[in-house]
What does this fold into?
Amino acid sequence: MRRIDFLVGEIDFSTLTAAQFMQQDVIYFAKSVKAQSIAAAITTGNFGSVPIVDSDLKPIGI
It folds into this structure.
């Protein structure tokens, strides 16, 4: 789902499923990555948050 669809009211949330709402090409970072690098990626990628993963790629935070 695109952010603009939500903002202009083109999406009826009562009909959405999780599959329609989720992001499929997720950008993630290891916990060792510097905050400045993550902030730069968020800014240039125009998204609001990123998962932080451990060495097994298991999410440990957002």
